[in-house]
Amino acid sequence: MTGIECAIVRGGTSKGIIIERHLLPAPGRERDDVVLEVFGSPDVRQIDGLGGADKLTSKLAVVGPPTRPDCDIDYLFGQVGTALATVDWTSNCGNISAGAAAYAVHRGYVKPTGGTVTVAIHQVNTGRRLLTTVPVTEDGQPAWQGDFAIGGVPGTGARIDLDFGDFGGGIMKHGVLPTGNAVDTIDVPGIGRLDMSVVDAANLCVFVRAADVGVDPRSGVDVLQADTALIDRLEAVRERVSREIGFLSGPGVEEELRSRVNPLAFVIAPPTDYDALNGVRVHAAAHDLVSRSMARRAFSKAHPATGSIGTAVASGIPGTIAHESYRGHPADGAPYSVRIGHPGGTLDVTVEQENDPSGAPLLRSAVIGRTARVIMEGTVFLK
Hints:
Blueprint: E1 2-11, E2 14-20, H1 29-39, E3 59-64, E4 73-80, E5 87-88, H2 94-106, E6 116-123, E7 128-135, E8 160-163, E9 184-188, E10 192-201, E11 203-209, H3 221-226, H4 228-244, H5 253-256, E12 264-269, E13 274-275, E14 281-282, E15 289-295, E16 298-299, H6 305-315, H7 321-325, E17 336-342, E18 345-355, E19 361-370, E20 372-382
Parallel strand pairs: 2-3, 4-6, 11-12, 15-17
Antiparallel strand pairs: 1-2, 1-20, 3-4, 4-5, 6-7, 7-8, 8-19, 9-10, 10-11, 12-15, 13-14, 15-16, 17-18, 18-19
InterPro entries: PrpF-like (IPR007400)
GO molecular function: isomerase activity
Keywords: Isomerase
């Protein structure tokens, strides 16, 4: 049997496989085929591989020595299909980024000199630089134990800070507001004229009001996922936006979006009481807005970290859909925090941004706290 060394890592509310770059074929069909076999795709259960039969647990990080001098490690993200034989190399995962940071310390890509170490990650998908702060133990290994809790992960761990300040406009390369507007009104098949905000920060995010697409923000993610008509409407939003802004074009956009993470759709509402997936009551006082994330016909059981960055950035821009529902009112240029209520519980992001001379928003810093740990290292055998 042919084997590939790998690690299984939890990063934030996601779990994925890390493989060193030199152990995989060059980018292309052969690499994709190997990755699909490692995960056991295509198969909704991924029964014959390491995949976890869910989009949050079917993620890959390809890592290696840095290819830019200001970074400690390269990290290329792949979202691996479950039912589909696809690997999306065009997006980023912030949760798995925390796992990549912990792995970099674990494997000696950086040498800690104190209680924390900064790991600069070259996020290869976007070409941007992610700055992370990882707590370490006395023997120089990443600390797993701590008192930081995140919604969607049992227990607590050591907090890893991720700063996405370099990720404004990282997908479209046209700034934080790629259309130039805080809100655009676009005709969407099956819905009609719909207000939406398109924000490019960490990933490409599209925000719509819950009331405009027929969503009760108190509904559980299982109820939302069972509403196929709702999923059809939100996929129509993703398709229409992709064409309008020039992100995707041609006759196969709808099919391509079945495997692409971007654009992520977010259904936004003001704070309200609701029950998280674990049955714990999330009170309106504990968050600043409600967000439900959907892509590739699946609602997230938690909240993407990159999408949390986009949501927090949008919350600080007057006129956006997120800003309408956001409880806070940040002063111009001052740091502000956003507590996001999601199906797994709550999370918070701290943002600093300012306006350029033309009035367009510029992202300076966007920090989210995650926990992570290396679960195992070993060999995955190929058929």
